[in-house]
Amino acid sequence: MKKFKKKLVAGNWKMNKTLADAQVLAAEILRDLADFTEVEVVLCPPFTALKAVGEIISNSVIKLGAQNMHWEAGGAFTGEVSPGMLRDLYCHYVILGHSERRAHCGETDETVNRKVKAALAANLTPIVCVGETLAQREEERTRDVVHGQVTQSLAGLGDDLARIVVAYEPVWAIGTGRTATPEQAQEVHAFVRELLGAAGGAETAAAVRILYGGSVKPANAAELFAQPDIDGGLIGGASLEARSFVEIVRGAA
Ligand code: PGA
After folding, report:
1. 214 contacts: CB under 8 Å, gap ≥ 6
2. Distance separating alpha carbons of residues 35 and 31, to the nearest angstrom
3. Can you spell out the DSSP letters for 15-60?
4. Which of the following is catalytic: 70, 98, 100, 189?
5. 201 alpha carbon to ligand 1 midpoint, in Å?
6. Which ligand 1 atom sits closest to the C-alpha of 129?
7. How does the average pLDDT of the chain come out, rounded?
8. Ligand 1 center–CA 84 separation, angstroms
9. Which of 138-162 are b and which e, b meaning 16 or more Cβ less than 10 Å from the residue's Cβ?
10. Residue 131 CB: number of other CB atoms within 10 A?
């Protein structure tokens, strides 16, 4: 039997917003969505604003997420942040393996896998990002690439596989204004669900939320979210302004 799954919309603020600007944005989003429970909403500010944003949305329906973390619990890792530190600030979610980190910060499926396991052990829900580049799509390697990323990033999770969130974010659609069509996105989402089923069984595959990310805007959100295997979105640019983010969240209902 298929259980009801709430859609999830997460705002990935990336390396944007000063402390003061982050507080304003969080307060505006909270004002508009304080009574809105139909969609799960997550804000992922930069590390420097986690505590302040967390205080603004504490005791509300909106949850806090980070954009990255290290897999170790502590020690000599200059510049890194541990899973326990994120829990300490009441984070519920953490984005892992974003394509920008894979491209610019040496993140690999192996490091993502370590991080996913560490996040789950710390009771954080990882939002694990996968997606092909334009060249890979044009070479018709999308399935191969996504297959590799899903199976390796999520290897060895056992029953915990049901506790993760996956974000399919075609690299060519991120920050480019070029969105995957609902059909293109649905096709890959269905494939990801198939892979999850092969790894953890049908019930697990049905339980995991698979988000779409890449130039989601108020104008295209509802159509994307209406696809059978799209369970919400990971929103970059359009999450930096309350009005567009709130509109996208409402579009997911
Ligand atoms: P975008 O970013 O919405 O600005 O394309 C999405 C993401 O990178 O998570």
Report:
1. 131, 169, 170, 171, 172, 173, 174, 176, 178, 179, 180
2. 9
3. S---HHHHHHHHHHHHHHHTT--SEEEEEE--HHHHHHHHHHHTTS
4. 98
5. 30
6. 9
7. 97
8. 26
9. eeeebeebbbebbeebbeebeebbb
10. 27
Q: Above 60 in pLDDT, residue 1?
A: no
Q: What is the pLDDT of residues 51-82, one digit of tens each?
A: 999 999 999 999 999 999 999 999 999 999 99
Counting atoms of ligand 1 from 1, which one is nearest the CA of 214? 5
Q: Which residue has the tokens 């939320």?
A: 209
Better pLDDT: 5 or 119: 119
Element (H, E) at 95: strand 93-96
pLDDT digits (tens, 9 = 90+) for 178-223: 999 999 999 999 999 999 999 999 999 999 999 999 999 999 999 9
Structure tokens at 43: 């804000």
Check: pTM over 0.90? Answer yes or no: yes
Q: How many CB atoms lie within 10 A of CB 176?
A: 13
Q: Is 28 a catalytic residue?
A: no
CA of 234 to the centre of ligand 1 (A): 7
> Can you tell me whether residue 234 is helix, strand or coil?
strand
